[in-house]
Write a structure and sequence with these properties.
240 residues, alpha+beta, Sortase, Chain: A, 8-stranded mixed beta barrel, two-stranded antiparallel sheet, 3 helices, 13 strands, 13% helix
Length: 240
Amino acid sequence: MRRATSPTARVRHRIRNLAAGVLTTLGLTVVLIYGIPLMTGAQPLLAVPGQSSEPVPSSAGTTDTVPPVVSTPAEAEAAATRELERAPAGPGQPVRVQVPRLALDIPVLPMALPADHRVNPPSNGFAYWISDYGPAGPGATNTTYLAAHSWNLGYAAFNALMDIQAGAGRVQPGDAVLVTTLEGVTHYTVTSTAGYAKSTLESRDDLWAAVPGRLVLLTCFQLNDAGATQNYVVYAKRTD
């Protein structure tokens, strides 16, 4: 007789299976990205066009300290602490992002842009800074991009930024966004949000322009396991 499994156990097992696909395609830029599909064979979040970049050494991807799937914010915090002890942050490297109105307060890890320029954060538990586009803070000479998953079937780093059931963003112009680096906290204010078809992202010159002092948050509209055809993008400007 097969042993019965609890709903929680079945969900955890399913998440682990789905997350395996995340590791098949990686890529990103400094924009807030909502809802990346946690599915086997999942499409990457976006394809990034060529742009002059400022390479920064980073430990992109998963490691022994960064699991591909985490189930709770506490697990994410513990894993991020271990990873930053293993590979300490450099100057201008974001280590935390907050949107106080939405009670978002999550760790940030670095990832390098893959050779094929296709972005998919390697874990659901963290926002990822695309290090190729330069640092955050007052010294930034480019746009800063952060990307993360959102998902209505479990925990993901950017869940707080979306009304996932409605498939709509919760961020509003005027919202404060705080990015922490070794040098301190940089304050940004949201100027606008947009939804773009995934197929059009690479050709959007406004999204990929090098704008010093700009922060972009990027994710997908991800509902259940149906995949995502839309990206949700948050634009913010530095205000300190």
